[in-house]
Amino acid sequence: MSAVLSQSDLAVAALYREHGGWLRSWLRHKLGCAESAADLAQDTFCRILRRENLEGLREPRAYLTTVAHGLVVDHWRRLEIERAYLEALAWQPEALAPSPEERALVLEALLEIEALLAALPEKVRQAFLLAQLDGLGYREIGERLGVSERMVKKYMARAMLHCLLAGGVA
Amino acid sequence: MSARAGIQATDYRVLQAAAEWFAVLHDPGVSAAERQRWQAWLEAREEHRRAWQQVEAVSRSFASLPRAGQSGEAARLAVEAGSRQRRMQRRQAMKALVLFAAVGGMAWGGRRLGLWPGETADFETARGETREVQLADGTRVWLNTDSAISVRFQAGERRLSLLRGEVLVETGKGEPGVDDEAALRPLRLATPEGLLRPLGTRFLVRRDEDAGAGESLAVFAGAVEITPHDQPGARQVIAAGQEVRYDRNGVATPVPAQTARQAWSRGMLVADDMRLGDFLAELSRYRSGHLGWDPAVAELRLVGAFPLGDTDRILASLEESLPLRVRRTLPWWVSVEPR
């Protein structure tokens, strides 16, 4: 193998060797599922690989759990979004239900949308979603949120500006 | 994502104008005059057109989601659930910090216990009633008489709590209308005495009414791990076909499970060579008021399957088949005596 490993790659490899098993069991304890734990442990090291140098890391396990904890939180949110989506779909006639492939694509998009809009105030986000996803008009949105149509229009502009500044949905 | 880094002041104002035009045009009630003004704005400068292309790119990413019927609503509800989760996680993180500061690691011990005082029931049955509930993940739960459970489907786990009485649980997967994603999350059943971790299974857990009497677990398929609250080290896996008593301090030796124990979930009380005293004790769980019996009849043996829908009829049929009589001093005071 001729690939040249950088100093920091070697540091990650050492980290993996020494603490990989420990991290997996820490994650298994958090998630209660060995399979997800293995996946998230993998993701944790992938994320660390993309970061700067690890030399002189004093508390490797504290560092690992900090990174892993963020992934656990994402994982739970992902499951929650999936759960809510499938639950909502369960209420509609089968003919309208998307196929498993469509569902998987939609879920990916929903995760991105959620992350994109997370920083917006609640009503702004709700107004934007009601317009973009439910296809409601401003009057109806205003009635639902208890604000004027003019305010809904402001919310829409604000949410769109937010998306534009974030570079849009990938 | 590259847009953010290099935004100039003018770009920002153009993006702002584009976002405002978007808000004007998105309303179904937009007037022709406004459309014309937007057209004029768009054609005025190249950078307006570029900004507008970005607006369209954002809109497209939403439009690509199925909007027909209620799918759009489903999508929105999912996004909102995600945001709620995010807020909750943030709050929990804050709370955890505060608690850690105050009491060190104690918060986690409490969390693992999972039973908060005053937890409210999501499903419950009155005395004499049994009920079948199917949860979103396909798990089926039958509640026996005078029982209550709460259900918390959280991101990390599905948690049921037995608040009182008896439940039969059948973990499910791959049924129509079932949330398979949820079914992948670990299921836990917390009881006042211990924490049960079912491993793909059908099992029954029963809490006896007298304080200190403990609980019993019977496993009919798969396996269930019991962790007594005060002795987590005494954790034990109970396999299918076994039945065991346990409390917060430990787990007794398993004995063979009686399959007849789950008959109530089909509305039956099954006695397979059962002591009449035990049978009547069972029966009294489904009745309000007093049901007593003379020790002289307690040792009589009984075989049969009795529909639980009408417990008075069960008593009448006992009278027909066994040397006893049922005396009703008052409508709610019934005694079984030798004949």
TrEMBL record, chain A:
RNA polymerase sigma factor 70 region 4 type domain span: 111-163
Residue ranges occupied by any RNA polymerase sigma-70 region domain in the UniProt entry: 15-78
Keywords per UniProt: Sigma factor, Transcription, Transcription regulation
Gene3D superfamilies cross-referenced by the UniProt entry: 1.10.1740.10, Winged helix-like DNA-binding domain superfamily/Winged helix DNA-binding domain
InterPro entries assigned to the protein according to its UniProt record, in alphabetical order: RNA_pol_sigma-70-like (IPR039425), RNA_pol_sigma-70_dom (IPR014284), RNA_pol_sigma70_r2 (IPR007627), RNA_pol_sigma70_r4_t2 (IPR013249), RNA_pol_sigma_r2 (IPR013325), RNA_pol_sigma_r3/r4-like (IPR013324), WH-like_DNA-bd_sf (IPR036388)
This protein's record includes keyword Transcription: yes
Record-stated family: Belongs to the sigma-70 factor family. ECF subfamily.
UniProt-listed NCBIfam families: PRK09651.1, PRK11924.1-1, PRK12528.1, sigma70-ECF
PANTHER family the UniProt entry points to: RNA POLYMERASE ECF-TYPE SIGMA FACTO, RNA POLYMERASE SIGMA FACTOR FECI-RELATED
The name this protein goes by in its record: RNA polymerase sigma-70 factor (ECF subfamily)
Organism for this UniProt entry: Azospira oryzae
TrEMBL record, chain B:
InterPro entries, A to Z: FecR, FecR_N, Ferrdict_sens_TM
Gene3D superfamilies (UniProt xref): 2.60.120.1440
Keywords: Membrane, Transmembrane, Transmembrane helix
Residue intervals passing through the bilayer: 93-110
Keyword Metal-binding: no
Domain FecR N-terminal residue range list: 16-58
All copies of domain FecR protein, residue ranges: 122-225
Name of the protein: FecR family protein
Biological source species: Azospira oryzae
Lineage summary: Bacteria, Pseudomonadati, Pseudomonadota, Betaproteobacteria, Rhodocyclales
